[in-house]
């Protein structure tokens, strides 16, 4: 005889509310503990409602820390380069047989013929003391003609002229009195071959005078000068030296 088991009452599906609440409490507790741990590590985290005041640490400066000098690297010892970096051979032109230049003789100046008449010194401006009563008006020119050896020369003509058309000719030896007054002290040779020519102007006037020595067909160069217009220098001495 079989006994029939009584039908169990089918349990109601689903969890118990008490069990679910316990589980939720545990999860929330773990989350709260994690939040506290994070806040402990970083109190400035954004979800911490009680953030402590932030501490601003002073920024260290170079003056506070002390400026550390920048080390200067020692100079690099570069060895001298004994050879050029690049040596490029250049083509050398083949020498050709070139004739040496011909030496040109230096031209030498050929001295010209010595003039027949030269001046032993420049014209001398002095005072006329040979004549009395000529102060303030007398004006003239005189001189000596001699050889280089100091011998008198009388066979020449002395021509004197001015810019007013006056022309005079005289001969040495016609004014021998000058030899005693104006001798070697005035560049003369001490001979008697003196000549003289009075000018038709006052010693207070300055005029241009020309003097030339003539012998046969030869004429010396023209000696030109201006009188001073000073009566203390109313005599001009012009000496000629005859060379041959």
Protein model, in words:
It is a single chain. With 244 residues, the chain is α+β, with helices and mostly antiparallel strands. Among the domains are: 38 residues; 126 residues, Immunoglobulin-like. The strands form two sheets. Strands 1, 2, 3, 6, 10 and 11 form a six-stranded mixed sheet that branches. Strands 4, 5, 7, 8 and 9 form a five-stranded antiparallel sheet that branches. A hairpin with a 4-residue loop joins strand 4 and strand 5. The longest helix has 25 residues. It is rod-shaped, with a radius of gyration of 69 Å. The N and C termini lie far apart (205 Å).
What's the topology here?
Elements: H1 17-41, H2 62-65, E1 117-118, E2 124-126, E3 140-147, E4 157-162, E5 167-170, H3 177-181, E6 194-198, E7 208-215, E8 218-219, E9 223-226, E10 235-237, E11 240-242
Provide the descriptors you would attach to this structure in a database record:
244 residues, 11 strands, five-stranded antiparallel sheet, six-stranded mixed sheet, Immunoglobulin-like, alpha+beta
Reported for the largest beta sheet, the result is: 6 strands, mixed
- Radius of gyration in whole Å, from Cα? 69 Å
Q: Could you give the order of the helices and strands?
A: HHEEEEEHEEEEEE
Helix content: 10-25%
Using DSSP, what is the number of strands? 11
Roughly how many Å apart are the termini?
A: 205 Å
How many helical stretches? 3
Class by helix and strand content? alpha+beta
* The first-level CATH class name of the domain at 117-242: Mainly Beta
Percent in strands: 15-25%
Coarse shape: rod-shaped
Q: Give the name of the CATH architecture of the domain at 117-242.
A: Sandwich
Unreliable stretches covering 5 or more consecutive residues: none
What is the arithmetic mean of pLDDT? 82
CATH topology of the domain at 117-242: Immunoglobulin-like
């Amino acid at each position: 005889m079989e006994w029939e088991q009584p039908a169990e009452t089918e349990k109601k599906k689903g969890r118990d509310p008490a069990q679910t609440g316990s589980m939720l409490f545990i999860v929330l507790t773990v989350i709260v503990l994690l939040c506290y741990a994070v806040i402990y590590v970083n109190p400035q985290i954004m979800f911490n409602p009680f953030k402590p005041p932030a501490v601003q640490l002073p920024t260290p400066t170079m003056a506070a820390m002390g400026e550390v000098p920048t080390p200067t690297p020692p100079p690099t010892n570069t060895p001298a380069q004994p050879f050029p970096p690049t040596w490029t051979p250049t083509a050398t032109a083949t020498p050709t047989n070139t004739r040496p230049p011909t030496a040109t003789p230096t031209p030498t100046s050929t001295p010209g013929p010595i003039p027949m008449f030269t001046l032993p010194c420049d014209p001398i401006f002095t005072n006329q003391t040979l004549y009395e009563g000529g102060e303030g008006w007398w004006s003239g020119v005189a001189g000596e003609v001699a050889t280089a050896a100091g011998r008198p020369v009388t066979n020449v003509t002395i021509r004197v002229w001015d810019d007013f058309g006056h022309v005079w000719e005289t001969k040495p030896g016609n004014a021998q009195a000058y030899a005693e007054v104006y001798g070697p002290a005035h560049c003369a040779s001490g001979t008697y071959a003196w000549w003289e020519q009075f000018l038709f102007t006052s010693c207070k006037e300055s005029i241009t005078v020309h003097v030339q020595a003539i012998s046969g067909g030869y004429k010396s160069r023209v000696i030109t000068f201006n009188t001073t217009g000073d009566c203390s220098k109313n005599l001009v001495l012009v000496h000629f030296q005859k060379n041959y």
